[in-house]
Design a protein that fits this description.
Blueprint: E1 3-8, E2 13-19, E3 26-33, H1 37-47, E4 50-57, H2 69-82, E5 87-92, H3 96-106, H4 111-114, H5 117-135
Parallel strand pairs: 1-4, 4-5
Antiparallel strand pairs: 1-2, 2-3
Helix pairs in contact: 3-5
Amino acid sequence: MARILAIDYGTKRTGIAVTDELQIIASGLTTVNTKELIPFLKKYTATEAVELFLIGEPKQMDNTASESEVHIQKFIDTLLKEIPQIEIKRVDERFTSKMAFQTMIDSGLKKKQRQNKALVDEISATLILQSYLYSK
């Protein structure tokens, strides 16, 4: 089996999480400067077997698309051109940032560590991936 890679896209930073080869465990991989995201994904998929990209789908409380959806769609269009062989699925990402922050509190991270936005993005990507794995 190949890995599943989850992407919590942001205009500045993007959190990335990945499964093991058996698609059982979701782990935070890294946070990447969004300008370097496509080159990072091309390099990663050249060395690791990835069968699916999960991309967070931010929605408002009334289920309409959030403002960042325009940027995410542009990214998806580019991703489809650059790495067309890997399927893309969208996953509702409402509340993942809040849940990530709560996870950091629950795990005992100090206030200074909880202000690390890159870590929040990585944990958010992991939560997106975990929710997908649970739903399978």
